[in-house]
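Hi there,

I know you've been waiting on this one. I reran it after we fixed the sequence typo, so this is the corrected version. Both the input and the resulting structure follow.
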Amino acid sequence: MTMIHLYARVLRLLGSQKSLGWVLALANVALAAAGLAEPVLFGRIIDALASVQGTGGALDWAKLTPLVAAWVGFGLFLIVCGALVALYADKLAHKRRQVVLSDYFEHVLQLPLSFHGATHSGRLIKVMLAGTDTLWWLWLGFFREHLAAIVSIAVLLPLSLYLNWRLGLLLIGLSLLFLLLTTFVLHKTEAMQKSVERYYSDLAERASDTLGNVALVQSFTRVEDEVRELRLVVERLLGAQMPVLSWWAVVSTITKASTTLTMLAILILGLYLFARGQTTIGGIVMFMTFAGMLIQRRGSSIRSS
C-alpha cells in the first residue's frame, strides 16, 4: 500500500474532527508557501548587499527595506502558524486516538465467542495499542510536517528550474538519486520488519499467558521454564531485528551523505556559473538553502514510510 492510499484511509477516520483537519491542511499549505518565500527573499537581500559592496555605493533602502520586511514577516508567520499547527494537530491526534481505541474495544467485545476462541487476547491487546499509536503518529506527523513537506517538494522543484535551470537540474538530479537509493533500502527492510512484528506478537501472547496464570506457574514451579522460553522468543526477535537496524543505519548514512554532497555540488556549480555571469551570490545562497530544505523535507517523507 502506498503512503497516499494509507493517508487516504487514515484521514477518513477523523470523524467529527474533519473540519479541523481541513483547517490544518490549509495552514500547512500556507506554511509551505512561506517557507519557500524565505530563501528567495534572502537571496535577493544578499544580491542587494553584494552589489553595494562591489560598487562601493550607498545602500538602496527603498529597494532593501521591503525585502527585509517581507522576510521578517514570513519568518514570524512561520513561527506563529507553525506553533498553532503543532498544538492543534497534537490535540486532534490525541482525541481521535482515544475514540478509535474505544470503538475497537467495543467492536472486539461484540465479536462471536468462536472468534475469541481462535484469537489470543494478547494479540488483540497488541493490535489495539499498537494500532491506535500508529494512527496517532500518522495523524500527528501528517498535519505537523508531512503535508507541508509534500507541498514544498511539489512546488520547490519546478520553482528551482524557473529561477536557474542549471542549478535546478542539479538539485533535482541529486534528489532523485538519493531518493532512489533510500527507497531501495526501505523496500529491503519491509519484509524483514513484518517478521519482527510477528515475533512481537508471539512475545505479547506468551507474556500474557504466563502473567494470566501466574498462580499455576508458581505452584508447578515453572517460573524458570517460562522465563527461559520467553528469553528464546526475545533472542529470535533480536535476531530478526538486527538486520533491519543495519539497513536503517544505511538509510541514516545516505541521508547524511546526501546533505554534504548536495550542498558541495550546488556550491561548486554555483561558483562556476558565477564566474560565467550565469548566477549571482544571492542565487548560490538561495539554492543552497533550497537544498537544505529539500533534504529536510525528504527526510520527513522518508520517516513517514
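Quick highlight: The chain has a mean pLDDT of 85.

Best,
R. S.
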